[in-house]
Amino acid sequence: MKTTDPKKIEILDCLKGGLIVSCQTQKDEPIYTPDMVVKMAECAKWAGAVGLRLNSPEQIRQVKEADLGLPIIGLYKVWHDDTDVFITPTMKEVDAIVEAGADIIALDCTSQITHEKTIAWDLLPQVREKYPNHLIFADCSNIEEAIHASQNGAEIVAPTLYGYTKNTENIEGANYRMVADMCRAVGDDAKVIMEGHLYTPEDAMKCIFIGCHAVVVGSAITRPHYVAKRFVDCLSKYQDDWRLAEKAHHTNELK
């Protein structure tokens, strides 16, 4: 959905060619402290990041109050045992992140079945209608889903969920050819922002080169426990799989 809204274009222009840092921490993780996500965001701002990706109304609100001047991509992760859909799965979560101050709404736009027994991407047109002034960031797992999202109201599409669905669950690295094809497939209808499986600055540069509007990097920057686990996984001859820890469901309880 190619936008003509001046405010949306201004946000998209400020993201172009830049790094968006995913600043997230869960209460059951070793790095969790009440102010950790704000410190992550401050580090991202200091480094020159052009945007932030934040999970939960609580953490969005914290960073918004810090007034860092960077656009916030908001999402709300909710896990259920009967589905792999966990990113902003219902309008309830959408309402919560908008109220908290998200500038851009991120939601699962795959063809997976939700806990509520709907198709995840069916939420997109409802969000588009309710929040016409917000940019929508469609988290997808393949080209078909990205095209569907761009045709149904999303100004931004990303292969965020490549590796997190039943059809892609054994994938570990970025699929640059698929991402390049995604850029060509959506054309001018939406901006493709690369997210997922990026571990070095060189990885990020490849994405801009093949046509992505910007890149999102999270775990490789803000999750030192996952960085360490990748090294341990390799040094232990892959007896363990660090990706299982990264994909694990989280709890809201403090450890």
UniProtKB/TrEMBL annotation:
Q: Which UniProt keywords apply?
A: Carbohydrate metabolism, Isomerase
Q: Name one GO molecular function term.
A: N-acylglucosamine-6-phosphate 2-epimerase activity
Keyword hit for Transport: no
* KW Isomerase (keyword) present: yes
Q: Which GO terms describe its biological process?
A: carbohydrate metabolic process; N-acetylmannosamine catabolic process; N-acetylneuraminate catabolic process
The UniProt function text for this chain reads: Converts N-acetylmannosamine-6-phosphate (ManNAc-6-P) to N-acetylglucosamine-6-phosphate (GlcNAc-6-P).
Family to which the UniProt record says this protein belongs: Belongs to the NanE family.
Q: Return the protein name.
A: Putative N-acetylmannosamine-6-phosphate 2-epimerase
Q: Which gene encodes it?
A: nanE_1
